[in-house]
Design goal:
Helix content: 55-70%
Radius of gyration: 16 Å
CATH class: Mainly Alpha
Oligomer: single chain
Largest sheet: 2 strands, antiparallel
CATH architecture: Up-down Bundle
Number of helices: 6
Length: 165
């Protein structure tokens, strides 16, 4: 479970950080106000880039924390610049890198409950939570972040999206 989660999140968050760096450089080189990219959306009813990055980070740390059996760290969702988004990614990476493989030993069968006590409450085994909920949600927000920037003219390719593996 550790191998299927922590290294994957690290790789993709690293790619996301690189994509954001390219977006910031793109904005500077073309005299584009950074907020134009940070608040860009694929469609009006979708989250803006900033929120997509925040949610991707939330899934990375939340999934890893739940699988490791530790408390999920909270964040305020106050980022408004590329530098602040980079700091959020860095904080997320530091958290998940601080988890050990030993903490994930019982993760596959661990009971995971999302949104406890609400009408949207869901029960999972750790394995189902990771493979059928956590990773797909995470990839959706990372992919959407990439797509927003690519749609707005940032020169990106698949290699940028994939990060270092």
């Amino acid at each position: 479970m550790y191998s299927a989660s922590v290294p994957v999140f690290k790789q993709m968050l690293g790619g996301l950080a690189d994509v954001l760096a390219k977006a910031e450089a793109h904005a500077a080189a073309r005299n584009i106000e950074p907020a134009a990219l940070l608040q860009a959306r694929l469609f009006p009813d979708m989250f803006a880039l900033t929120k997509q990055v925040q949610v991707a980070c939330d899934f990375a740390k939340g999934v890893c924390a739940r699988l490791a059996g530790v408390d999920v760290p909270s964040a305020e969702d106050k980022e408004q610049s590329f530098a602040e988004l980079q700091a959020r990614i860095k904080t997320t990476l530091a958290f998940i890198e601080g988890l050990s493989a030993a903490q994930f030993e019982a993760a596959a069968s661990r009971s995971i409950v999302t949104r406890p006590g609400t009408p949207k409450e869901r029960h999972f085994t750790g394995q189902d939570y990771l493979l059928h909920y956590g990773l797909p949600q995470f990839f959706f927000h990372v992919t959407t972040s990439y797509a927003i920037l690519r749609h707005n003219g940032v020169e990106l390719g698949k290699k940028d999206y994939m990060g270092v593996y």
